[in-house]
Fold these 2 entries.
Entry 1:
Amino acid sequence: MQIDGFSKLSKKAKIDWLLQTYFNNDNTARQILWQYWHNDKALQKLHDGFIENTITNYYLPYAIAPNFLINGKMYAIPMAIEESSVVAAASKAAKFWLDKGGFNAEVINTVKTGHIHFVYTGKTTDLIQFFRQNRTKILDSVAGIQNNMQKRGGGIKDLNLIDKTTAMSDYYQIEFQFETADAMGANFINSVLEEAADTLQTLAQKELSGDLQVLMRILSNYTPDCLVRVSVSCPVSKLKSDELSGENYALKFVKAVNVAEVEPYRAVTHNKGIMNGIDAVVIATGNDFRAVEANAHAYAGKSGQYTSLSHAEIKDEIFRFWIEMPLAIGTIGGITAIHPLTRFSLQLLQNPTAKDLMQIIASVGLAQNFAAVNSLITSGIQKGHMKMHLNNLLTFLQASPEERQRAELYFADKKVSFKALKDLLGRR
Ligand code: MEV
């Protein structure tokens, strides 16, 4: 059903229209929306304002994974995620590495890029000369926008004309490189690019004989030069499981990671497990998980074949496991200062700089990956996963406290399945 002017309707009118159109005026649907409204009017208004056409809130569980030792500092990590087992797995991995030196993290670099994408129909040599002559003018035109960022140690670090005509006829870029200090920087970068593009267009009209048309001016969410690396290591002898000696465990673990390095089908799942941890902290700290996801997967595919973001080796009886990935996140700007839970998360993390947060987030990714591969090469993931899932299934079946107790006891030493649970509780 088409509707015009939906955005202009009040919240109540929006809901009325939805209920009438898609729910046969069923009041339970209205109840669901109401249940998730916040009683505190000011807080609800804050949430309404984050996006457009808000009709209620969508909650994610917010949990804590304690015992993370990162570069010698202890952290309790906030994680916002709907998937059971993820927080338990991260916590377990953190505890495992706690007495083995914890996570060693380093930020390799922090450069972000943005582009003015344009087409130019004249001679490339003319364009090169034009750019050389006008580079300073373009920079001067964005001086006002840069002011604040420069005070915080960021700003434009470089800009270059790039000839892309072999990829697409008449296509060029001006590629800007930025440092954005503790901000993710999207607004800053896009403001600079839009202003610089206007300057470019105006100058080109006056000085170039060929036609220059700006197509787009936008940051790139691919940041292969904004990288973080985190590793854990311990003597092989400290790795044993119930069935495997330390040496066999380490060998099997490394081989499992090797599979993700050479086989894209496995790499995607392997990296998905990493992103379970990464996204949960990214969301809890008010960062943009879509940007983080796109960036991570582009980086994983940078060689032309999608591969693992993490790697493992055994050298001189020492097992080492590490991750290297791009992370463009911030601890100021966006909703970081506006959303009360985001503020809470950052305070819990001891008010990290963006670099600190890159290190924390990547450590959680590595922990998550360690936990997943550990399960995969030993008991499998279903045992632990379904135990956690049992709770969700019981909720779905609206189990009574007595039924819950019976189910938990029954499945203590058995694999959980929906069918087995229904059989146990006599449900159809
Ligand atoms: C499930 O959300 C994530 C895992 O599949 C990751 C992996 O296989 O490495 C367990």
Entry 2:
Amino acid sequence: MYDNRPFLAAVLGNPISHSKSPRMHNYWLKKNRINGYYMPIKVKLGDFEKTIKSLISMGFSGVNVTIPHKLSALEIADESSETAQSIGAANTLIFSKEKKIYADNTDAYGFIRNIKSKFPNWDPKKGASVVLGAGGASRAVIAALLSEGSRKIIVLNRTIEKAEELKIEFNNKISVESWSHLDEIVASSSNIINTTSLGMNNETFVPIDPKSIPKEALVSDLVYTPLKTKLLKLGQDRGSKTVDGLGMLMYQGIPGFEAWFGQTPLVTEELRKILMK
Ligand code: ATR
């Protein structure tokens, strides 16, 4: 019998109305002429597992998960990628025909692919990387840098204890410095990555001395509202390479789309414009 039911996928979170993922995946579905739909679903923390079970029984191909479900997503999975395990959280779930759940975390992939799409010769093995922040996004960036062979990763966080916890989780492969040493650490780094929420909506921003940013460094900000954060502006003014957070958002969507819908979507300027609206 010919089965022409649409492919279904979703993003689960709370809140969820701000998510750009539905716009992105539905754009890709249309571009690739796939009969499918990707929807936002608001799910309370305690309802996560039963919602996943319902979606599986309704024939969904998989979901993205965002705050506050990234930890639960990894916990309920039957199988998970090494990256998801090292980050300790999942953002992409793939449901098999046998109704099994595979968990992945594509943030690390998105982070690397985004930088390499703009700077193909970028080599994180060279020089030190300073990562600002010690939350979920920081874990993904650290996992990404380690998988690319980075040898020197320095994490700075307002609450130093959280950075120390990360050091243990990543088997002492990172070092931790005090937030008050920001300028001197930045001055001797090749990669400067902001994973904190500082800079969002232009309210507050990373308290950095512009002169400490090396001209040959790459400055990356995971914040994408605004697109050009004050940190990126400082980097640009210094003549450094800069990468914005919207690119990472777009690239992290690729592996999920491929797994659910069977085609590889493209990150384009048109998509970027649609997401910026
Ligand atoms: P995410 O999953 O996006 O990384 P998170 O886990 O809530 O979010 O982490 C937020 C990060 O932003 C943390 O590193 C946090 O620092 P603390 O651990 O000290 O809270 C950082 N952050 C948020 N507001 C900040 C501020 N005003 N100054 C410095 N760091 C801040």
